[in-house]
Amino acid sequence: MPDWAAPAAPEVVLTAELVRREGRLWPWIARFLWAPALDLHPERRAALLPGWPEALWREPASLEHLSRHLLASAEPLPAWHSGASAFRLALLPQPPLALLARRLELALRGGGSDLNDDDARFLMERAPLYWRPRPDAGGVAGTAGWAALRAALAGQPAAVRTRFDWKTPPIAMQADGANDGDSDALLALTLRILREFEEPWSCLFVTPIS
User: How many Cβ atoms sit within 10 Å of the Cβ of residue 203?
Assistant: First the structure.
């Protein structure tokens, strides 16, 4: 009697060679997959290792050890869609990601009393030009931008979202779901703000994205 069972899909082994096939994206993908401690949000750093000297966060051996610790509890990510704009957004390192979250906060909720010159210029010159989804009225001030970034990645695999969460402050997770219905609109707004930055780190978005 013939065996009608479908053959098992071959297991994908994640290797450096596989990542290098991504061309100019491979260093960013490798950092995202194997070195999450490099971009751990400062609040998560403090919660993970309270009182740790700042110098230790710059030591390669310490960062490698912490990355292994984080990845031990994470789902494997054997495949990804490197052409997806949401995936490339997840690859951004911590400093520009924090600036992006700040500008999203300003675009969604406006300013407060703690505006610097860059914030004020962005609010006056750029924010009025953006169409944006209606912001959630709740939440903690300073977290709307991070929550919007998390919502923009709603369609990504859980393994991608887990690794991205490490780059965000823990309190942003409390707003999870607040903007899920507008995830496409939030992603579009995020990408528009991102592409108008002057910072020279937009190489993630040089090649066409979908």
Answer: 11
